[in-house]
Amino acid sequence: MKNKGANVPFHHQYLLAQLVRGVVLSGGSEKYQNYMLYNFSGLKGQTKISRNGLHFFSSKVTLVFSAFDKEFMDYFLRQLFTMPQLEIGNLILVPESVEKENYPELEDESKFICISPLVLISPTFNDSRGKRFISPEIDEFSDILYESTLERMARLEEVFPSEKIATFSKFQLVPDKIYLDKIRENQKKFARIYPVYDQDVKYEVRGYTFPFTLFAEKEVQKFVFTCGLGSFTHKGFGMLDIANADLNSRTERYEF
Questions:
Q1: Residues 6+ apart with CB under 8 A from 72
Q2: Is 60 left (phi over 0), alpha (psi -120 to 50) or beta?
Q3: Beta partners for 40?
Q4: pLDDT (tens digit, 9 = 90+) per residue, 169-198?
Q5: What is the helix, strand, coil percentage profile of the chain, to 5?
Q6: Are the CB atoms for 145 and 120 separated by under 8 Å?
Q7: CA distances to 96, 106, 195 from 111, in Å
Q8: What's the Enzyme Commission number for this chain (predicted)?
Q9: Tens digits of per-residue pLDDT, 43-54?
Q10: Domains of the chain, with CATH numbers?
Q11: Which residues contact residue 231 at a Cβ distance below 8 angstroms, ignoring those fewer than 6 apart?
């Protein structure tokens, strides 16, 4: 980071989405022009909130990025590291290094945290349903995520043929009740409205951030961990991490 103390809007996923899209298109690859099986977090670093947004005071910031296809990841990183600097909001950043996280052991029951907001519904133009609040404690919450996850997996017919998709019947998201109760007691929020831009049209969607346990087949767990959970995952929503992960032994050198 070249200008310590600079800021981005508190909700800055749309700026990162524009950056990622620009990097992808800059390589000129027709193969990846409409590729959407990637996911990313918000910017991570030492921050302070003010009325102007989120100020970064660390010398380095981190973006967690994930993709289903290793070839796409190589392509994206090669384009990113040809750029002398990047501007995100008022931040001026210089690409410096990339590390690979060690892939966790996922079972049929996994405890996750959201490191970017989880969006349930993709709205249509002039439609406010994307802002509707749905309690994560009712079955409708899980049902919507189940349908959207299988729909995304079904697009990868060579990896998940229809007969394989049909076997993925178990899917239940159970929120951390202690966390939700504590949030309510402190009169804080775990669900907020976020801006999303798609085809130059601005939408507003409700995003949720809370820890939960997911009961699903191992292949489904791996897919949502890699590609995100919910809607607008390619725009930086629904990125997950393992709860209580060991942060000291998680990265290794990234090999092209």
A1: 32, 35, 37, 38
A2: beta
A3: 65
A4: 999 999 999 999 999 998 889 999 999 998
A5: 30, 25, 45
A6: yes
A7: 32, 9, 28
A8: 3.1.-.-
A9: 999 999 999 899
A10: 7-97 (3.30.70.1890), 109-242 (3.30.70.1900)
A11: 119, 120, 121, 122, 148, 205, 237, 238
